Structures are given as structure tokens and as C-alpha cells.
Sequence to fold (644 residues):
Amino acid sequence: MREMRTDGPILEVKNLSTYFIYRDRTVKAVDDVSFRVHTGEIFAIAGESGAGKSVIALSTLRLVPQPGKIMGGEILYWGQDLLRMSEAELRKIRGGRISMIFQNPMTSLDPVFPIGEQIAETVRFHKGIEKKGAWGRAVEMLQLVNMPDPERRADAYPYELSGGMQQRTMIAIGLSCEPDLIIADNPTTALDVTIQMQFLSLCRQIRSELGTAFVYITHDLGVVAKLCDRVGVMYAGRIVEEGDTVQVLTAAAHPYTVGLIRAVPKLGDRRSRLVPIEGKQPDLSSLPPGCPFAPRCPMAKEVCRKGEIPAKPVGDGHYARCLFADRVMEESKKSYREIGHV
Amino acid sequence: MVQAGAPVAGASVQAEAQAYRRTSELAMFWEALRRDKLSIASAVVIGMVALAALFAPWISPYDPNFADSALRLKPIGTAGHILGLDGQGRDILSRLIWGGRVSLATGIVPVAIAGLLSILLGLIAGYLGGKTDAVIMRTLDVFFAFPQVLLGIAIAGFLGPGMMNVMISIGVVLSPWITRVAYTAVRSAKGQQYVEMAKACGANQWQIMFIHILPNCLSPVIVYSTTIVSVMIVLGAGFSFLGLGVQPPTADWGVMISDGRTYLSNAPHVSVVPGIVLVTVSMAFNLLGDGFRDALDPRLRR
Fold:
């Protein structure tokens, strides 16, 4: 196993902006986003569809499709800026040191190769071992992700596997070169709940056994609560609140986070109604000045619509981009005490 | 910790057993093809015709160019000449066997050459995109501006008569068509998520092109190519007819069909017999192409 470094953050994203530039408009999919991930930490990026979560994931490995462009910022991996690296250097990092797990395992696996070969391929890209050794490694990886009967499954084609097994194959590919960071983009959306639970415990197992850090992108706050150490809540291309998972979920300091939490159904609770957030996300190509959430925010005031809202510390490592963060937090704490959730 | 997961929900025991089969790619291809009766029949037909053409000097009952004017236009079943004789009194069976050499070659060789060239061009243009794409595809568009046959004749005429030159010119004429098919397949494969996945795993663009995109694009190219083999046999005959291909009296199925047209009313067998052979072989190529596609694609070969 590679020598594990423990000093400093493994990934530090600073002021990242990724825009999609069309002839007549510019969509600011990611706008001035910063966060850090430490060794062995599971960092969640949560938010609704279209908030720019996946674009962050793609930007990290410089895989943003046309016409997307990384406009500025730094993505430091152990202090090295990935945005200033050559393609060849970056290829060594992709899949070798930072790997990615995509949303849809069925379409992310190449349909014409047995899964073992796909795992072996990544190993060969990075480790330069010969075919047979790579195949052995593939079987070993399948075993690690608890694939039943790994030796024979390695010969199976993607379509011959269930969704859960396909997702495990994706993780096996991701883990095959012992990366120290895995970026998982909505990895469980295609899976049913029981398989999802298996997946989450697998992630925990990997983290505790291999010390791998995760950036876990999801819109499911339930998953965030169960798995992640820290969370960044995204809205309209920005991180509006960031902090320790327990803090954020029990004492949310941004009205959008509060809205997200209220919209999660709780099992066995038929009395309290789900509260949807009124309205919809603003058009990312023509954001209103001020707080992007102001048009939907129940407590928005005139000041919210003027000027940038700075990130305000509301606790230890807990930030929110809201002028009234303290008040929102007080109320969330109160309602958490009263009804068990925000 | 995670328990070993349950087997695939709902999959039958038999399907599971199949999924576990450890065999080489080639063996699986053969296994799938073998179960496809039409493909096997087609392969047998093509194989027989090819063998007959290959061993023509030994199995041909007569010299294909020997004319017995006393037996001109004698029908099918004439003693010693099962398939009859043509307008000059030459044995049709012998000419079919010898003609197979020319016709199969003009059908297969140019398509194979054009197919390989087209896959390469389509792959490069489709995957790299941008300027490379524009240069390759717009150059090929120029070829579409000419009528194909005329272009082929022009190239063949420029190179001079002869089999090899006909094959080259047909290959050139075909390439833009097959390239378009390959290009379209590459473009659609390029947008697939497994390509993004391969990139995220550290593959460079050549690895993506040849390891991931190429195998996913072969099916349409193979099917399209096999369907045009028969068209090429006929086109080759057209060239011969114009004096650009094989020179008389060398036999060629297309030439035989066209030679017979003068006797269509009184001795139809002179055209019909080689016509039936041509249609049968063409169909065999089409069916075999479909069979290849199915057997090459793991999703279709259960």
C-alpha cells in the first residue's frame, strides 16, 4: 500500500468557477466554490438537481464536457494544482490517485467487455503490470467489494449483473489502484434502498480499512446523515452552507438547508406534513443580484437582494451564506428539540 | 460489515450458469454463430463457392473459354453440360466456377479495404472532432458530389484496365459511404458514459478510441459492408462491361448475366443461371453479416 500522508487536506478547492458558455448566454454552473477534504473524511455535497454538484465532480478531474469551461480557481490535490497540470500528468492521477464513481453503473460500464477486464484495464493503465497479474488484481478487487463468487463473476458482462453488482464493479474499478480520494457522483440513485444500504456500509468499510477519503455527491439528506462527516449544501452553483453533518442537520443556518430538511419524509410520521420549497431554482444564466435563494426564501428582506452575501461562521467549521444565519440557526435548533427534526 | 450479496434477483439458474461460463472471446463468438442456422447455411454457401473458385482448375469440367459452336445455347440438362451452354457454346458451369474467382474478389477485396480504411477515418474524425473532423468529412463530401459509378469509372479509367485497378477504384468509391456509417456510430459511442468513465480512469485518447469506441462501433459497419458486397459484384461486372475490368473472354458472373441478355427470350438460362448464383451469394453475405453482428455483440448473443 502507498504510504499514506496525513498532513494537510487531501483536496482543497479554492474559488472554483465553472461556466457553460453558449453563444447567447453563460450558465454559471459552479460559482466561486471552496471546500476542503481531509484524509479519511467523507465530505458530502448535497443539493437539488441542477445545483452544480456533478459539475464540481467533473471539474475536479478536468472532465467538464463542452461547452463547459473552468473559469478560475484552484483545485489542490496534496497542494498540487490539478488545473495547472499537463494532460499526461493528470491522466496518472485520474483513476490512479483520484477515482470517480458515476451515477449510472449500467451505462458507465462498457457493454462489450467482461467486468474483470474493465477493472484490469485501469490497473494496467496505472501500474504497468501484465495481463495475468491485472486479472488477478481484478478478482481481488471484486472480492474486496463483496461480489459473490468473484472469480466467475469477473467473466460476466455488465448486462448480466444486477444494479447493485454493477455499482460494486464501479467501486472495484475505482479502488483498483488504491486511490486516496474517491469522488462518488450520486452513486446510489440507480439502486433500491436495501442495496443502497449495502453500498453505504461498503463505503464506510473502505474508509476505515483503507483510509480513503470521499467526496460524496447526493441529493439525499438521509444518506448524508448516515454516511458523511461533513456536508456542503449547494444551491444555484454555490455552497450556501458548510459544516459538520450533525451540526448542519440539527442546527441548519441557511433557510435553503432548512427547506431541504423539511422536504425529507420521515418514516412512521403521518402527522407532520412535508413542506416543499416554493418556486424553483433561478436560471443559472441570469442570477439575481444578492442571495440566489432570496426569491424563494420566506424570510428574505430587501438587503438580501443587494450585493454578494459573504460566508458567515456560525460555529466550529460551520459556515452559512445568509445574513440572518444566527436567527435561522436558533429556530432550527428549537424546532429540532421540539419535533426531532428541523 | 457488508454480507456477500444475494444472487441476481429473478435470474434463472440456467442464466446464472451461463453468466459464469469461462471461455475465450473467440469461442463465445463461434458458439453464438453456430446456433444461428441461417448464418451457418450462408457460411456454407459462401465457403462452397469460394472453394470451387479456388480449385477451379481441378474441378471445372471444361475450359471456360472453349467454345463449341455446335452446342450454342443448348439448355440446362444437356448431356455433359449440366447447366447448359452460352451464346458462344461455352460450358456455363465451368464459366461460373472460374467467374467466381473474379466476382468474389471484386465483391470482397474492395469492401474489406474500404471497410478498414473507413473505420479508421470514421474513428479519427468522429472521436477527435473539430478541425480533423471537418477536414476528413468535408473531403469525403466531395466524393458524394460525383455519381458513384461515374467516379469509379473515372478512377479505373485513369489507372487503366485490369482487376487490381477495378478493386482499387471500387474501394475508393465505397470509402465515403462506409466512413459515414462508422462516423455516425463513433459519434454516438463518444457521448456514452463509459467513455467518460474510461477518461476518469486515466485512459488516453488512443486507448479510448481503440479499446472502447472501436468494438462498440463495429456492428453497423460490418452489417453495412456485407450488404454492399453483392452490389460491388454487380458494379465490378459493369466495369468489365465497359472494358475496364476483366478482359474478355475471362469469365465473371456479371459479364455472364449481361452477355445473356440478347438471348433472354429464346435461351433465358444463359442469364438466369448466373443471376441465381449472384443472388444466392449476395443473400448469403447479407445473412452472414447479420449473424456476425449478433455473435459479436455480447448483449445479443445469449
